[in-house]
Design a protein that fits this description.
4-stranded antiparallel beta sheet; 2 helices; elongated
Length: 167
């Protein structure tokens, strides 16, 4: 595995668990308020905490040098405090090699670089409802009209598209 780079990370021959998509705990909060007798407003927050997931988008962007983080690809690659050296040339290896061969999950099955914490809090839903009691003549005591919006806000340090993934 990339033995031509002295000082680079090494992988073992055995599989190791790098993350856990099962959260340590999850919480939710739903509430509803009546406003002006016939209107009601409700919301739902939920959160998941303590999971780590594989960020495939980040890996792909690293592999192809399309992530903003890869702008330093012409700089020397330093790992554990030492510059990584190409055994064939004796020259320092650039960070481009790190992004191409190590930090992308598409080469050599090394996925550690793109596993990240994915805890989040989401404003999952808000709803506004109107209760109309105008059909009593035909034996309908109440009709409720509701407008709902979902997945309005996500708060997370996860750098991928959405932390609510299963890989």
């Amino acid at each position: 595995f990339r033995n031509d780079f002295h000082g680079s990370p090494h992988i073992t021959d055995s599989l190791q668990v790098l993350g856990n998509t099962d959260p340590t705990f999850s919480r939710g909060w739903r509430n509803e308020f009546t406003i002006l007798h016939n209107f009601s407003f409700s919301f739902l927050f939920d959160g998941v905490f303590g999971q780590q997931v594989w960020n495939g988008t980040k890996g792909a962007l690293y592999r192809f040098g399309a992530a903003k983080a890869t702008e330093d690809r012409d700089q020397p690659w330093v790992y554990n405090g030492q510059t990584v050296i190409d055994n064939a040339t004796g020259q320092p290896v650039t960070r481009e090699a790190y992004y191409k061969f190590y930090a992308n999950s598409f080469a050599y099955d090394l996925e550690e670089a793109v596993v990240e914490k994915a805890s989040y809090i989401k404003l999952r839903e808000i709803s506004l409802s109107y209760n109309w009691g105008g059909l009593k003549d035909i034996n309908i005591s109440n009709v409720r009209f509701t407008v709902t919006a979902r997945n309005l806000l996500t708060i997370s340090d996860y750098t991928g598209f959405d932390p609510e993934v299963n890989n």
